[in-house]
Design a protein that fits this description.
The chain has about 250 residues and is mostly helical. It is built from 12 helices and no strands. Helix content is about 75%, strand content about 0%.
Length: about 250
């Protein structure tokens, strides 16, 4: 006996398959939630949390994202300072200088403006080079600290600013002395005298005057200008009667 199969109905297969797909996809859509972009405040909070864990690279990314969204002036100031602090703590001092400077440009009257100005100076101070190298960073630090002292006379950071200013000025003075000593050793006494005079004029308050006076006398003696040499030696005797350089002077005369 021959068994007959039920005829297939191609037209019905497609709608059934489509229905199954709709049910599956519909179920997936029903259980999911639409992705919501973080607000600037949320990105900022995340950045602060990451920075607290010293994850500065991730914190910087979060602060950059925070700066892209809508935000008020107060939050924008918070983001700018946090971004600059993250660069500073990551020891990326050139970027920190730029970020603190941008904060001051955008928020010059913010309560943290003195802090940002101090940090500009400190960021430059962190880039000081040895006395035999260019002192651009030292000059920049001096300018930043002087701006702090001049522009924010009531700041609680003035003492730290003064300390930083002294540190940067000392580095410049030591550089000038190193250059002057080099010229003196190589017999370029006029050039050496010019550098010692800079030290005497600009850095006498840091304790370099005694040596500068003694060296100036020596340079002008080598240049056969006894009148000028004696003038500097006399100033040394008058202002620093207990100077150890006076003993060296007496020995040189003997």
């Amino acid at each position: 006996m021959i068994r007959r199969c039920a005829p297939s109905v191609p037209g019905l297969l497609v709608p059934v398959a489509a229905l199954l797909a709709t049910v599956v996809l519909g179920g997936c859509a029903g259980t999911g939630t639409a992705a919501r972009e973080k607000t600037s405040q949320e990105w900022y909070d995340e950045g602060v949390n990451l920075a607290g864990k010293k994850k500065y690279d991730l914190a910087l990314e979060a602060f950059r994202e925070a700066s892209r969204g809508y935000r008020g002036a107060d939050l924008d100031a918070d983001i700018q300072v946090a971004l600059a602090d993250a660069y500073f703590n990551k020891e990326e001092y050139p970027a920190a200088v730029e970020a603190y400077t941008e904060f001051l440009r955008l928020h010059p009257h913010n309560a943290r403006a003195d802090y940002a100005q101090f940090r500009v100076g400190l960021s430059w101070q962190k880039q000081l080079r040895s006395v035999d190298r260019s002192q651009e960073a030292a000059y920049k630090a001096v300018a930043a600290y002087e701006a702090l002292l001049r522009g924010y006379p009531r700041s609680t950071l003035l003492d730290q600013g003064r300390e930083g200013l002294v540190t940067a000025r000392r580095r410049i003075a030591e550089h000038e002395l190193a250059v002057a000593d080099f010229y003196r050793r190589t017999g370029k006494y006029q050039a050496a005298a010019g550098r010692y005079e800079v030290v005497l004029r600009d850095f006498a308050d840091l304790g370099y005057a005694e040596r500068a006076l003694f060296e100036l006398g020596g340079c002008y003696r080598q240049l056969r200008d006894e009148e000028k040499a004696e003038r500097y030696y006399e100033q040394l005797r008058r202002e620093y009667p207990q100077s150890r350089y006076l003993k060296d002077l007496e020995k040189s005369k003997g």
